[in-house]
Amino acid sequence: MTKLLLLSLLASFVFASQHVLTNKQSSNSPDLSALTSEQLKEQGFRLIETGFEGNSRWMHQGDILKLYQTETRFTDLTDGDLDRVAHLPPPKRFPIPAKLLHQAVVNPLLANVSVPHLTEWLTKFTSFKTRYYQSPSGKESAEWLFTQASVIAKKADKSKVKVTIEKFEHEWAQFSVLVKIHAVEGGVAEPAVVISAHQDSTNQWNPWWGAAPGADDDGSGSCTIFEAYRVIIESGFIPYRPIEFHWYSAEEAGLLGSQKVVADYKARGVQVAGVFHADMTGYTPEDKEEVIGISTDYVDDELEGFVKQLVQTYNKGTKIIDTECGYGCSDHASWTKAGYPASFTFETAFKESSPYIHSPNDVVEHITFSHVAKFTRIAIGFAVELSYTK
Predict the structure, then answer these.
(1) What does the longest C-alpha to C-alpha distance in the chain come to?
(2) CA gyration radius, the chain
(3) What span, in angstroms and rounded, lies between the C-alpha atoms of 149 and 178?
(4) What 3-state class would DSSP assign to 295?
(5) What pLDDT is recorded for position 30?
(6) How far apart are CA 290 and CA 320, in angstroms?
(7) Contact, 187 vs 240, CB < 8 A?
(8) Of 75, 149, 176, 207, which sees the most CB atoms within 10 A?
(9) Environment class of 157 (CB within 10 Å of its CB; exposed 0-12, middle 13-18, buried 19+)
């Protein structure tokens, strides 16, 4: 106990020292114009964009911390991942179904969505003190996620489907996890259908050492798509188009992980039929009905129309609301910026979202798992309907 106390005090002292240092540097307003991008990075600065594209400036950690604390959304452009592939031809666009044609396949799968599975999985995922992308426990949680994905993959019928699981490594501790499901025979190699979430969490007052269970943000989205992955594999579903499940690292740091994954896909010419992104699917305000929020910005309008059909068909009676996410809201924006069709659903209207996120209070006790299950149903419908489109 004494050792833990000493470590905690040391961590607090280091954090306070860094905070004072960065505030001092900010107040001195150093002239950055004479420094190269590499020199700025070496001194701990990051190129941060807030608001609209083009509104970017070099910021130090103290200033970035203030963005967390004022709930200002931002994208970290320091590494220029998407800018480096911007000159490449836009990705090929594939027709989006006007109608849902595979209810006979989807409905039996939906019966296997399990609230107890969702609850057990998220309870474990939130047991790590933090899933901050630079922290040791952030790497440990990614390893746990990778292991769980591997356990499910072993249940696949290898004569019918091939499941590959990749650790997409980054320069920081926490890797992104990519799962790919291909038909052994009778399917096509492209385009892929992508279902995604972000695995990291953060504490807005102390990202490095503060507790950040991240049950809603984005443990809920992570378990939403993991349950969809489990159901698809255990049901023996054979895709026509490959289906991929992505858990990105470092979303909270400015969409860092997804920018690198998306840039890699575009550089290699990987074709994608559509992206369904799940970030915060578990909170409903007290005395409010459960709704599915459909984002209206930084998304593909036609694909969002398709998602609305999925909600109406596979979550009958659930109210749909249009809601605006804002700049740098989540990883779907990386796909959209690169020219891929992406969609994004949300737990409520954004103005009514969980007040507990980015704090030690973002715990499973504030999650409505029946609500999470609705998003899992949408994800399964998205995967099957878009995979079977020819």
Answers:
(1) 65
(2) 21
(3) 9
(4) strand
(5) 60
(6) 9
(7) yes
(8) 176
(9) exposed
Q: If we measure between CA atoms, which residue out of 225, 227, 220, 201 comes closest to residue 122?
A: 220
Span 185-240, pLDDT tens digits: 999 999 999 999 999 999 999 999 999 999 999 999 999 999 999 999 999 999 99
Q: pLDDT for 258-296, tens place per residue?
A: 999 999 999 999 999 999 999 999 999 999 999 999 999
DSSP code string of 244-280: EEEEES-STTTSHHHHHHHHHHHHTT--EEEEEEE--
CB 113 within 8 A of CB 107: no
Contacts of 61 (CB under 8 A, 6+ apart): 18, 22, 44, 46
pTM > 0.85: yes
Task: Return the HEC string of the chain.
Answer: CHHHHHHHHHHHHHHHHHHHHHHHHHHHCCCCCCCCHHHHHHCCCEEEEECCCCCEEEECHHHHHHHHHCCCCEEECCCCHHHHCCCCCCCCCCCCCCCCCCHHHHHHHHCCCCHHHHHHHHHHHCCCCECCCCCHHHHHHHHHHHHHHHHHHCCCCCCCEEEEEEEECCCCCCCEEEEEEEECCCCCCCCEEEEEEECCCCCCCCCCCCCECCHHHHHHHHHHHHHHHHHHHHCCCCCCCCEEEEEECCCCCCCHHHHHHHHHHHHCCCCEEEEEEECCCCCCCCCCCCEEEEECCCCCHHHHHHHHHHHHHHCCCCEEEEECCCCCCCCHHHHHHCCCCEEEEECCCHHHCCCCCCCCCCCHHHCCHHHHHHHHHHHHHHHHHHHCCC
pLDDT at position 53 is: 66
